[in-house]
Amino acid sequence: MRSTLRLLASVKPGRYLEAGNPTGLTGLFTHPAPRSALIYLYSSTLDKLKAFPESSVYRQSTESLTRHRLKIVESIKPAGWAEWAEKAKKQIVEHPEVFNTPEGETPHDNEKYVKSTHDGRTFVNTRQASEIDEINQEWDGEVGSATLEGSRVEEERRHQGKMLKMKRPGSDEKTVEWTPEPPLEAGQILEMENHIGAGLIEEVIEVAEGELKLVDTMLQAKVWEDLHEKIPPGQWDYFARDTHSPTTQEPPTK
Hints:
41% of the residues lie in helices and 5% in strands. It contains 8 helices and 2 strands. It has a two-stranded antiparallel ribbon with strand order 1-2. α2 packs antiparallel against α3 and α2 (34-49) packs parallel to α8 (201-221). The longest helix has 21 residues, at 201-221.
């Protein structure tokens, strides 16, 4: 039923779902790259869960569910995925300075592409340049100040000297165009949604984002430790399973 909402919201359903289109749920729009987003979120969650003791019930349950859904997502690959993955690995190897900035050095192209590793998987985060419409942008009331010329104060000169000594890893003329992962077809997304069984893929992404934030809260609270105040004996006995009718009733006698 949930998938029908997406079809009804789309005037001209096609082979691929167009990013930003309505999904049929208020405030929820079609995600541009659900597969790569889920793999990144699930891998980051698994990375953070390693800080919990293996005996933690929260870690065990969350790890089990996350790995189950991650397996489903990774099993469904878009057309041309193998060729894209091979090209991506080759770009990272041939241009390491573009994706990795040594400490203390100037990032290449304002850190447009940043490589990270989570749970043994490599990701490249692309920073999207924000477009500013100077025509429609309202004036915020800020008044510009005059630029000082001539010799500067000692603190500014020290900062300029430090910047000049920094080594830039790569020339600005050297650019690398990172190609995003090929998109999934609408049928593949529907298959993924049916396997996961938690609504639209956009809803699944929102749950994964919430779980990733919750891990930090649970870690800070140290949920694996014992309570400061012990639970009174018998507090939860009433809610235990098979306590109301522990034995099978005997059949009525004639």
